[in-house]
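Everyone, study these two lines:
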Amino acid sequence: MMDLKDLMPGKVFVDASIFLAEILEEDTADECADFLQRISSAELAGSTSTIVLNEVFHRTLIADAIATYGIKGELAVNYLKRNPDKIKKLTNAHTAIENICIIPNLDVIDPSIDSFQDALKISRKYGLLSSDAWHVSLMLADNIENMATLDPDFQRVDKIKIWMP
């Protein structure tokens, strides 16, 4: 694992945890914002995927529901499923995705069935959950060796370099 601020110019895959740290104002929010600014200014060539966007949307929606409706985290999904009108009133997740999609120099990769089949092999080899394995699959297919993340699970993958704030 290497320090994100030391990442040299080039291609980098941005994991959901980087976006979420900034959106949810976690301890590393400032470092993540600085990193995303390096993509915006074209110092770095950023890539992410629709899978990452889905993760960010879901987790931001849940965080918004917890804050807005005062529900416990473990009850949030079931609460929203039983109260779909409450989802309509939550806007932070939509705004977060809109803001990510307009970051200059950030390419959003659409996954394919082939990338999913590769992800299954990667999951088995490295013991990764499906979405994480899919991120690695997309990176390898697009010749991206660097990943910005807060998730230590990716350190098990010997084919990529992990950069953390």
In short: The CA atoms of residues 25 and 156 lie 27 Å apart.
